[in-house]
Write a structure and sequence with these properties.
Layout: E1 3-4, E2 9-13, E3 19-22, E4 29-33, H1 38-41, E5 53-64, E6 67-76, E7 86-88, E8 94-102, H2 109-112, E9 118-122, E10 128-138, E11 141-146, E12 149-155, E13 158-161, E14 170-178, E15 182-192, E16 195-205, E17 212-223, E18 229-238, E19 256-257, E20 268-272, E21 275-279, E22 284-286, E23 290-311, E24 334-342, E25 350-357, E26 363-371, E27 379-402, E28 407-418, E29 424-430, E30 438-443, E31 447-450, E32 455-461, E33 465-476
Parallel strand pairs: 3-6, 4-18, 16-25, 19-23, 23-29
Antiparallel strand pairs: 1-13, 2-12, 4-5, 5-15, 6-14, 7-15, 8-14, 9-10, 9-13, 10-11, 11-12, 16-17, 17-23, 18-21, 18-22, 20-21, 23-24, 24-27, 25-26, 27-28, 28-33, 29-32, 30-33, 31-32
């Protein structure tokens, strides 16, 4: 298969050098770590991405020559941690003396993958310039070992190689010392980037007066490593291991989208140190430049809670009582729709898309949010968006400071409006944070929740109407506390 490149001039060099080549074998074993890198999952941009993290273990069948000689392993990803690469011979047929990583990047990326292969170099008129083993492809040309010596070709038009497979990615050149000639099995392990995974969840809200949803859990696996992976045995790791290096592989729609696997069988889940692992039940193909999806858990119905939230203020607490009258007078108008549910099992971090049926029964998108790593039995909460028909307004109706008595009184009025055709319940969340010691002195609606920094009310708002909440709080402090004016 030819590669068009440039025009030709051949120069002979009087050295003979033999190189053995071992092609990548299918059936690699890969441990893949979670990555949230937007570049990995982007539907546009460069296909070569140096984000994500995976540890690969694969078997190579190599042809050895007795004694010291060079061996090239091709079809490696574009971004590798050269310091962590290791080749071993389980049968003890050879040992590695030294190794050099040939990066499959830049203008010679495609030819780098052919290092150690038999090639034919052609001129611009189709004439044969050289045939032999490619030793190196660089800016200064091609170095080819032929029957007559070693040839440096600085200008050429095309390169062809036999067979239907064209190696891609980087190559590893090793100098080995073999005890015998012949075939041998070798085990190659290395970390790489350009590949990662994250969880992808879809929740479809079910009709009815109670909140429930059909919940689907999948793993999205992005491959932009510069190499195809075939029949790969895959284990997914959920959690956040520490990576000491600031460069190189890091855990952070393509042209091919793999179809979702059948609902059964599902990955085998287990603990791995402080992390969670998911071992896929069958090998998968991961083409370069693709996002593949596999199920994590079987689809199920999950109970949930939807909240219309009107919130003002925050959890910040001052070091001294805040007596300034203009403190914390901001008024928000938006009512936020949220969704909360309890994790039925350990849920890895990812994104949850929420759908609901319209009047014709067609599922429609109503919001998306991120779920952090959530242990089984813990709550996950996400924001769906801003409610269209609901609005809120907050105004302060009273403020008085008694410095001698070391008290401060403050009152607010919350007005909620509903332009929709059905009554709604709005959760009003306030944060009395002028000082850490406070009590509710009055309220037209009984508080539904009260903590050291939060005050909540459930307010029923009629259809095409409004509701008003009035409440007051009193702050107190001791003589040893210095108020801030």
């Amino acid at each position: 298969m030819p590669i068009n490149y440039r025009t030709v001039l051949a120069v002979a060099i009087a050295t003979l050098c033999g190189v053995s080549r071992a092609e990548a074998a299918d059936g690699a074993s890969m441990t893949l770590y979670r990555s949230d890198s937007p570049a990995l999952y982007s539907s546009s941009g460069d296909s070569d991405v140096n984000n994500g993290y995976a540890v690969v273990r694969e078997q190579r069948n190599v042809t050895l020559q007795s004694g010291v000689h060079d061996l090239v392993l091709g079809d490696l990803p574009n971004h590798l941690d050269a310091e962590a690469m290791a080749l071993g011979f389980p049968g003890g047929e050879a040992k590695v003396i030294s190794q050099r990583l040939l990066l499959g990047q830049g203008p010679n990326a495609a030819l780098t993958g052919l290092t150690g292969s038999s090639i034919n170099v052609l001129g611009d008129n189709g004439q044969a310039l050289a045939s032999g083993t490619l030793l190196r492809a660089g800016e200064d040309g091609l170095v080819v070992s032929t029957d007559h010596g070693t040839t440096l070709i600085r200008q050429y038009a095309a390169v062809s190689t036999a067979g239907d497979h064209f190696p891609t990615g980087s190559s590893l050149r090793l100098r080995v010392d073999a005890s015998r000639s012949g075939q041998a099995d070798a085990t190659l392990s290395y970390p790489t980037s350009g590949i990662g995974w994250r969880a992808a969840y879809v929740a479809t809200l079910q009709p009815g007066n109670t909140c429930s949803m059909q919940f689907e859990s999948r793993a999205s696996i992005a491959n932009r490593s510069g190499r195809d992976w075939h029949d790969t045995n895959l284990t997914l790791i959920a959690g956040e291991p520490n990576f000491a290096k600031t460069t190189g592989p890091r855990p952070m729609m393509m042209r091919a989208m793999a179809a979702a696997a059948p609902a059964e069988p599902l990955p085998e889940q287990s603990s791995m140190g402080d992390y969670r692992s998911y071992t896929l039940p069958a090998p998968v193909d991961l083409p370069d430049g693709s996002i593949s999806q596999v199920p994590l858990y079987a689809a199920r119905t999950v109970s949930c809670e939807r909240t219309s939230l009107y919130e003002n203020g925050g959890n910040w607490m001052p070091p001294q009582p805040m007596l300034n009258e203009t403190f914390n007078t901001d008024s928000n108008t938006s009512v936020i729709s949220t969704l909360r549910f309890t994790a039925f099992d350990s849920l890895p971090a990812g994104y949850l898309r929420v759908l609901t049926a319209d009047r014709n029964g067609v599922p429609q998108f109503i919001g998306e949010g991120r779920i952090n790593d959530t242990p089984k039995g813990s709550d996950a909460t996400m924001t769906l968006g801003t409610a269209f028909d609901l609005r809120g307004q907050r105004e302060r109706t009273g403020f008085h400071v008694d410095k001698a008595g070391r008290t401060m009184d403050e009152a607010f009025r919350i007005t909620l409006t509903n332009a929709g055709e059905s009554a709604r319940t709005v959760t009003v969340r306030e944060h009395p944070n002028r000082w850490r010691e406070w009590t509710v002195t009055s309220s037209t609606v009984k508080p539904s929740k009260q903590t050291t920094d939060t005050l909540e009310f459930k307010v029923d708002v009629p259809a095409n109407g409004k509701a008003v909440l009035d409440y007051g709080v009193r702050y107190t402090w001791t003589a040893d506390v210095q108020p801030q004016s």
